[in-house]
Amino acid sequence: MDAPTKQRIAKLHPSVREEVTQIIAQCDQALTGKAKIRITQGLRTNAEQDSMYAQGRTTPGKKITNAKGGQSIHNYGFAVDICLIIEGKASWETAKDWDNDQIADWYECVKIFALHGWEWGGNWKTFKDMPHFEKRNLNSWRKLSKLKKDKNGYVILS
Ligand SMILES: [Zn+2]
User: Fold this and answer.
1) Which of 48, 46, 137, 31 is nearest to 84 (CA)?
2) Is residue 94 within 8 Å of residue 35, measured between CB atoms?
3) What three-state secondary structure class fits 19?
4) What is the domain range of residue 111?
């Protein structure tokens, strides 16, 4: 896996770092080297989330999120966004079968995340977020927002 992916995993909630490392390794193995998976975003600060929320509302551009700071699973380090790297270039193409095994590479990754209990944003009804995956048993920001945090700012799971 590439350096940006490693760096982003290192900032996820400590409880999922090992698991995400395994998921990414399994995705790369399934894609047989033609495409590789990269994490484009993991942990996002509340300030970063607030500036994303502002886009299309109080700052120029298209609306990209309905979540304010603290309302995204990314803000707790339990979500990742991915892309594929094909011949050195980032791709968000979800239908291509680069390794010719009759399953789109993107869906091969979706299946692997699902086996580990990660929910895919592509299954959401109101706002499909194809690059997004989040840890399923924790998928309520309201619950997460009530937890105490450790000295590094990560919520403490009981
Ligand atoms: Zn996301």
Assistant:
1) 31
2) no
3) helix
4) 3-144
Q: Give residue 52 CA to ligand 1 midpoint distance, Å.
A: 12
Is 23 within the bounds of a domain? yes
Q: What pLDDT tens digit does each residue of the chain (158 aa) get?
A: 999 999 999 999 999 999 999 999 999 999 999 999 999 999 999 999 999 999 999 999 999 888 999 999 999 999 999 999 999 999 999 999 999 999 999 999 999 999 999 999 999 998 889 999 999 777 689 999 999 999 999 999 97
Tell me, in angstroms, the distance from the centre of ligand 1 to residue 149's CA: 21
Query: Does residue 152 form part of some domain?
Result: no
Measuring CA to CA, how many Å separate 92 from each of 1, 40, 101, 105, 112? 18, 11, 19, 11, 17
Q: What residues have a C-beta under 5 A from ligand 1, the ion?
A: 81, 132
Report how far ligand 1's centroid is from the alpha carbon of 45 (Å). 13
**Predicted pLDDT at 139:** 62
CA distance 87 to 73: 31
Instruction: Give how many domains the chain has, as a whole number.
Output: 1
Residues 6 or more apart in contact with residue 9 via CB below 8 angstroms? 17, 20, 21, 24, 39, 42
What are the structure tokens assigned to 78, written together? 């339990």
Q: What is the CATH number of the domain that holds 31?
A: 3.30.1380.10
